[in-house]
Amino acid sequence: EEELNMNFARTALVEYATEAANSFMQEMRRSGYEMTQEEWDGFANATYRLLAQSMEIHNLQTNYRCYIGNVTPGSDVSAKAKGLDLRKMGEPIPGKDVAVLKLDGGNFPTVTLGDDSKLKTGDKVYAMGYPAVATLSGALNVAQAIQEPTLTQGIISARKEMAGGWNILQTDAAIHGGNSGGPLFNEAGEVIGINTFGMIDGDSGAQVAGMNFAVPISIAEQFLREMNVTPSESRFTASFKTALEAFNNKDYATALDLLRGINETNPGFPVVQELLAEAREASDANPQQSPSGGSGSDGPEATEKTTQANKTASGLGGNLNTILLVGLGVLVLALGAIVTILLLRRKAPAASPQYAASASASQQPNWPPQQPATLSGPASAGSTHCASCGATLAPGAKFCPECGAQAEQRKPGTCPNCGHENEPGTKFCSECGTKLS
Question: What is the pTM of this model?
Answer without folding.
Answer: 0.54
